[in-house]
Amino acid sequence: MWPEDVGILALEVYFPAQYVEQSELEAHDGVSAGKYTIGLGQSRMGFCNDREDINSLCLTVTHRLMERYDVRPQQIGHLEVGTETILDKSKSVKSVLMQLFEPHGCTDIEGADTTNACYGGTAALFNAVNWVESSAWDGRSALVVMADNAVYAEGSARPTGGAGAIAILVGPDAPLVFDRGLRVSCMRHAYDFYKPNLRSEYPVVDGKLSIQCYLSSLDNCYQKYREKRCLTEQKPSEDVNLANFDVVLFHSPYCKLVQKSFARLAFIDFLNTPRERIPDSYGDTIRAFHASKLEDTYFDRDIEKAFMALSKCDFERKTRPSLLIANQVGNMYTPSVYSGLVSLLISKPIDELAGNKIAVFSYGSGLCSSMYSLTVTKNTQEGSDLAKIVSALSYVKSQLETRQRASPADYTRILALREQNYHVVPFAPESSTANMFTGTYYLTQVDEMYRRTYARV
Question: Can you say whether the dihedral through the CA atoms of 106, 107, 111, 113 is positive or negative?
C-alpha cells in the first residue's frame, strides 16, 4: 500500500545576516532610480561574505531544522542536497552533512547531490518523495536540503543575485501533501544560463533567451498539468484554470518576472476559453488577442500589460504573499520557489491556509522545469502539524529585519575578494563572525589540500 498523505512535515529557511539595499545599488551602479526596485521588483539582496560557502549554508539549515523540530539523526533514512554552487567536482555536499549524523552512529542514509541550475532542489525533493513511496522505504523520514550563493559579474544581472538555504522534512501523514499523479515536467537543451568556467563563481547568461526559456517552460508545464488534472477529475479542459488554485508559487529570479508569469497563466486561460465564452467586458482590443499563437507572445508588451492588469487582483491574493523573502533576500537559486512556500505560511492567517490548493512551478536553466500541486491540511487547530510549522517559522520576519546593511561599495569589495580567493589555498577568511545569527556555521580555514573546516556560532 502507498503511505498516506506523503508531503512536507517540517520547513526551515536560512539567509545570510547581511544585505545590500537595491535602491542604494541603483545609485552606486549609476542606473536610473527604480530600475532594480520597480523594474525588477526587488528591495534588498542578501549575500555571503568569505565566511560562508555552500557547505556552511547546508550545515546551518540542516542543523537548525533538526534542533527546531527535535528530529533525531536516527529518524533520517534519505538525505539529498540540491545545489548548483559547486566547490568540489567529486565530493558531495551531502557527504559534508554526514558530520551531523556519523557521530550518532547513523551512516545508513541514502542520497547524494543533484545539480541543474535552480532546479536541483526540486529534483532532490521529488527523489525524496519517490523514496518514501517506494519499496525501499523503511519508515524513516527523508530530508531535502537546497542552498546556493547566487552571484554575478558586474553588470545588469548582478542585482538579481541572492543567497540562502531551505531544508524540508518529507514523510507520510503530512500537513502539506503532494497531490499524487499531478506532476509534469518540461526538459530541454538550452544555453540560457550556465557555468562552464570552474575557476569562477559567475555564470554565463543570455538574459533574453533565459526569459523565453522560463516562459516557454511555464506554458508547457501548465498545459500538461491541466491535461493531467482534466483526466484525473474528468473535467472539460477549459474548466481547469487559475480559479482551481488558492495559491500559485513560482521560481523567482526576480519578483517582477513572477508577476508577469502569473499574468501569462491568465493569458493561457484566456486562450483556452472558447471565444463565445469570453466576457464582453474584456472589450475588442483584448478579445483580438484570442487569435494569438502562444509561442509568438513571449515579448509582446501589449498582451503582457493587458493581462497583468486583468490578473492583478488574483496575483495580489494568490501569489504576492509568497514573495516576501524573494523581495528581501533575492534569488536563492535552488531554494527560491520554496522560500515562496515559507513566505506564504508566515504571511497568511493559518485559518485561511486550511484546505488550500497550491500550484508550484520550478525552473532551472539549461533547462529543467516542473509543475505540481500541494494540498494543505484542513486541521489548523493549536498543536496541529501545520500549526507547528507556522510557529516554527515565526523567526523569519524578525531575522530579516535584524540583518546588517552593507554599503554597495562594501558589497562590491566582498564579491571581488570572493572572486580573487576562489579556490586559493591555503586560505583563511577575514570577515568577522560577530553579526552572524546564532547557530550559523562558518568557514574557519581551507588547508593546502583544499580541506575545509567549519565552526558554529
Answer: positive
